[in-house]
Write a sequence for this structure.
């Protein structure tokens, strides 16, 4: 049992992608946050980020339906500093945003270090988030409804990232630095 | 205003795909059904199917968040007859189901007439549904959580179908038969 758990944890950490992130810009419905974290876990996102007031984290922890414990979550007070901090780490920030500037989501390179910025259910990506992002990406819509559910949009983009990264061999050898790897393994084994 | 609406309706009907369907096998949470119908509308699904007891349709109509009125929904009492009826129309039925028989979801051909069968939130695809399907397809999971949210899984598969169909030119000329096209246009203009 413990050996099996250890093997599963190692197999997961072997595929975690420290340079593929998600930044949630005011996404607040628990079922959406939960679905997004499940998707993050599935495509190997090691760390997600969220902009929300301090007291919302409690909600997230209760409702992440199992995935919350496997995807590290960092919260930020405002989107501007959050985007700057990701850019400071060398990541491109792609805002999922149906703006005039938007390019097709399949045309950008997700094998380079990047973060996908998702907007809130009602008002979408904030003005500050849209302004700070390096690019805007959109998923084509062939129907009458203007936008997709946010957890659906995040998944469509993240599985395109997964496809590109798998093709580039980025899941074939461990990509976390050894210290983070072992620290996380320790935390998962001793929660 | 009316001319603009007419143009939008026509542009949508020009891209509707009568031979790309979704069959929901006991999916019952309104927010999931709603998110799936939004995705159906976005990728041009003309008709969706659902297996559920007669009295559930009311829930669906209230909660489809706008997309329900643009995607025709047919309900079925049981999954076996629903699958047979789709197969009788010449469609392949691909069950999204993490079984031993499952092949990677990107390896199947969505340009041929087909329906994607999605399982319920808790128990997944029913035994009868899994047995009746022509193939099982799975989305790769690189993490610790066993499955994706059902509306997320449906979207990842449907946007792969959209990608294949766009590459094959299936959105370039109208694919609905003229009678269905005009009948639907009439219904949308005079709800
Ligand atoms: C329900 S949408 C927000 C809609 C909002 N009314 C707007 O105009 O932006 C929630 C988020 O999902 C993402 N999203 C939804 N549909 C999308 C699409 N077709 N392309 C890119 N992102 C999308 C965006 O991040 C968006 O901010
Ligand atoms: C939450 S899952 C059901 C989980 C259920 N415990 C089971 O074992 O099947 C709901 C539905 O989403 C779809 N789904 C979720 N993750 C999937 C994946 N990785 N591949 C294919 N389909 C998936 C399937 O149709 C599944 O029946």
């Amino acid at each position: 049992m413990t050996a099996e758990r250890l093997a599963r944890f190692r197999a997961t950490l072997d595929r975690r992608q420290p340079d593929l992130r998600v930044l949630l810009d005011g996404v607040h419905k628990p079922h959406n946050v939960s679905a997004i974290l499940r998707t993050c876990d599935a495509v190997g996102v090691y760390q997600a980020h969220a902009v929300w007031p301090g007291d919302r984290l409690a909600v997230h922890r209760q409702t992440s339906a199992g995935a919350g414990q496997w995807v590290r979550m960092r919260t930020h007070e405002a989107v501007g500093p959050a985007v700057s901090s990701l850019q400071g780490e060398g990541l491109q920030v792609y805002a999922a945003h149906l703006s005039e500037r938007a390019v097709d989501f399949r045309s950008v390179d997700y094998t380079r270090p990047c973060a996908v910025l998702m907007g809130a259910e009602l008002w979408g990506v904030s003005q500050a988030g849209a302004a700070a992002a390096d690019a805007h990406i959109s998923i084509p819509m062939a129907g009458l409804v203007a936008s997709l559910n946010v957890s659906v949009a995040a998944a469509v983009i993240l599985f395109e990232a997964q496809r590109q990264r798998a093709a580039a061999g980025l899941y074939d050898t461990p990509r976390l630095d050894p210290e983070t790897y072992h620290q996380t393994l320790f935390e998962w084994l001793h929660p």
The longest strand of chain A covers residues 20-25. The interface with chain B takes residues 8-9, 12, 15, 31, 34-35, 38-44, 65-67, 70, 106, 139-145, 147-149, 151-152, 155-156, 159, 162-163, 166, 171 of chain A (CB under 8 Å). Chain A has seven helices and seven strands. The pocket of S-adenosylmethionine (ligand 1) is lined by residues A 96-98, 118-119, 121, 124-125, 138-139, 141, 147-148, 150, 153 (CB under 6 Å).
